[in-house]
Amino acid sequence: MSRLGKITRRTLLVGAVAVAGGAAFGVYQIRRPVENPLRPEEGVTLNPYVIIDQSGISIIAPRAEMGQGVHTTLAALVAEELDADWEAVRVLHGPPAAAYFNGALAHGALPVADYAMRDWQRRVTDGLGAASKLLGLQVTGGSTSTVDAFERMRLAGAGAREALKAVAAERLGVAVAELRTEKGHVIAPDGSEIDYRDLAEEAATRDVPRVDLRPQSEWKLLGRSLPRSDMQAKVSGAAQFSTDIVLPGMKCATVRICPYLGGGMERFDPAPALEVPGVEHVLDLGNGVAVVARNTWAAMQGAEAVEIDWTQSPLPTSTEAMFEQIAEAFDERHNSRMRNDGRPDDQEAQLEVEYRVPFLAHSTMEPMGATAWLQDGHLTLWVGNQAPREHLKVAAEAAGLSEEDVTLHTVFLGGGFGRRVETDVTRQAAMIAAMLPGIPIRLTWSREEDMRHDFYRPAAIARIRGAVAEGRATLFDAKIAAPSVTRQAIGRLAGREMGGPDKGHVEGAFDQPYAIPHYRVAGHLADLDVPVGFWRAVGNSFNGFFHESFIDELAHAAGRDPLHFRLDHVAPESAVAAGVLDAVRDLSDWDSPLPEGRARGVAMTWSFGTPTAVVLELDKTDGPIRITRAFMACDPGLVLDPAIVRAQMESGLIYGLSAALLGEITFTEGRADQGNFPDYDGLRIFNSPRIDVTILQENPHMGGVGEPGTPPAMPALANALYALTGQRARSLPLIHQADFLI
Amino acid sequence: MAISITVNGTQYETDAPSETPLLWVLRDELGLTGTKFGCGIAACGACTVHLDGQAVRSCQVPLSDVDGDVTTIEGLAETRYRALQDAWARNQVAQCGFCQSGQIMQAADLLAEIPEPSDADIDAAMGGNLCRCGTYTGIRAAIHDAARALNGGGAG
Ligand code: FES
Ligand code: FES
């Protein structure tokens, strides 16, 4: 047991507080009570997950719903124990609050491969979870949400259920043990029913009994594919995203910020913009302008019309020069060597290769946007975001208010992928609203603004030496250079530099479950100030490509089948990982050869606690190369909602394949050359593969599902291309190197 | 001068400049925010609505060219293509959901043209609608499912 203590049922207690016409139930931690974000009366500290009042049952899911289905799964945790009627439950994004810290984020903090983590190490990271609470990181990311909520939200549901039963028992004059609960009702021995709503107010006034959680064998909702709580709103057009809030007297805004990254604005002339019909204001934002108009179209026309002299970007003037600067990091001492087995320096290399991957944009379907309204000194914002506390803080700063004078509503995210951790659009909306008090502002970025002001997935270079003997890999010696996402993004989020070895920079390479005698992965941090940020799967998104492309090269050098070669090296290290390789072999019928003109490639990456293997099948018999089939096998351990896991696997795969085939951001004079989808596209329905997914549950620890599908997709495509054409792709995107259907 | 347009059976007057694209009239002038902006250049399909029953990219249609009845996602439930919304829900298609209004409106146009589309028909008709969440498996299944329902085969 670490000194920091482990967050368990023993330190989590369920409590209740009164709300109008009912009660809010939630979990608090004995050791360090936090302020209740739902502002019940003083003295009570509670982390509310469920509110029962006269309108029914509302479950608070304090993680951003960006498509990954997290609201459904988090709400099901509460509903399972509460015996709520699933169809009638309302799911809400919680308010920004320290109480909703994401303890599971700390699981990534030890310099240890997840697959090899020992139990004591897990306990230490559980303790670190308590420390991350001090930072108040209410972040949706790192595929951690379900893991984090697994106990706490069930406890809240169970506590609420027992409190309601206690009230009913008293009222009916029977023992609690004689009562059952079902679909939002307490059921008496005689079969009569009392609605939870009629018990909640009284339940709020008493202590919540301690209860044990139900065993998995009794689960009715968890483990099943549930109708998603957000589905009806999303097929009817009713779902509200950041720019769908309608407010009285609202004006529409857009921004035009210096596209030469790191540059600024020397002067601007608003006159031509003010001549555009509908344009009302041109505002100085320092490094660019905001244009406010009657509608977004007029604002965008106006923003184009403003005459602006930009100052230069301090960045290298070409993408080539940026790569040179990244490569210079190899000359500096390594930042990390988180894997360092055997004596790589004494080994003769048979293969020495270099891989390169480009900068990537997130390109969420919904461009950045936010709604903000400053009324009588109070700022209200509506913004789909992945870190509400940070957004709130930044908004308060930008508007010159204290945090108490800001309310932030998290609305649906039109895709997140890591982009909406960043607070830039929230800052702008708050600034504009503060300059135009009383006027609600709907701020929408153009696609071009979105693509040219991203926090990009960094470009990265790997240099790898390798050797094989007797059909086995004997040497895998990799150096990886890229600008550090961890340093930049955590720096922005926490307001301070992160020192020490950067695990995120080498994840997906140093922590893979292969038994190789001389095995080393060194991270080199490049000194390049292109804004970089969390992009789906983060470091795994490039390291997965490097690692699994090179494993493929080693397999071919050894004259071995690449899947069986992998299995031979993985099985001694991890039965769980070998399991996904076995499963994908069966699913894809790997061992039966394909006819001329068709070929398969395989890759496997262990990321966010979930090993995921992908086999892709390519076909060039009918014109350009088509990705016809994809087979995926993953093992996230205990699965709470199989349909959501499947959907996330498919989504991660398509996101990764889109990047591997088409994705590339290049810069000229520090300005991204790509501005809209024709230059930076994703897979479409006609060039997406048919996808089969096998979900295993052998992993003893729960892993994430939002990201693990992305890393193996990219090398699987390059490896399949090699199998099809004999051409080894050591850089992405592949569209520059082969004739794919696009 | 005010221009009058009919959206989902309701007549609206707007004094927005006549070159304003229908997308922004719907979203910002009329408050119908179910129709989404993704690119502004006819490259993503998020803004797809029907003009006299035909799918159009509303970011490309100036107000002055709106010479027929407009149907948006908010009005689709009143038509027979509600079957698509039901099929979308049965197949749990949406992830972030941002592209789905456009996907569904485009699919309605497809089923109006081809009541029993093949996979190749779906590829041809839906290729202009991007989904960054990669929900294409679900979209394909839901279109087939809705086609069966509309053709009297019952929901599958
Ligand atoms: S917004 Fe009209 S097609 Fe993208
Ligand atoms: S569901 Fe997110 S873009 Fe399609």
Can you characterise this structure?
The complex is a heterodimer of chains A (742) and B (156). Chain A folds into three domains: 3-221, Aldehyde Oxidoreductase, domain 4; 251-312 and 363-452, Aldehyde Oxidoreductase, domain 4 (2-Layer Sandwich); 332-360 and 456-736, Aldehyde oxidase/xanthine dehydrogenase, molybdopterin binding domain (Aldehyde Oxidoreductase, domain 4), CATH 3.30.365.10. In chain A, the strands form seven sheets. Chain A has a seven-stranded mixed β-sheet with strand order 11-12-9-19-16-17-18, sandwiched between helices. Chain A has a five-stranded mixed β-sheet with strand order 1-2-3-4-5, with helices on one face. Helix content of chain A is 29%, strand content 23%. In chain A, a hairpin with a 2-residue loop joins strand 16 (369-375) and strand 17 (378-382). Chain A is globular, with a radius of gyration of 27 Å. By secondary structure, chain A is of the alpha+beta class. Chain B is α+β, with helices and mostly antiparallel strands and 156 residues long. Chain B has two domains: 3-75, Ubiquitin-like (UB roll); 79-150, [2Fe-2S]-binding domain (DNA polymerase, domain 1), CATH 1.10.150.120. In chain B, strand 3 and strand 4 form a beta hairpin. In chain B, helix 3 (82-90) crosses helix 6 and helix 4 crosses helix 5. The mean pLDDT of chain B is 96. Chains A and B meet through helix 5, helix 7 and helix 17 of A and helix 1, helix 2, helix 3, helix 4 and helix 5 of B. The structure holds FE2/S2 (inorganic) cluster (2 copies). One FE2/S2 (inorganic) cluster sits between chains B (94-100, 131-133, 135) and A (67, 365, 415).
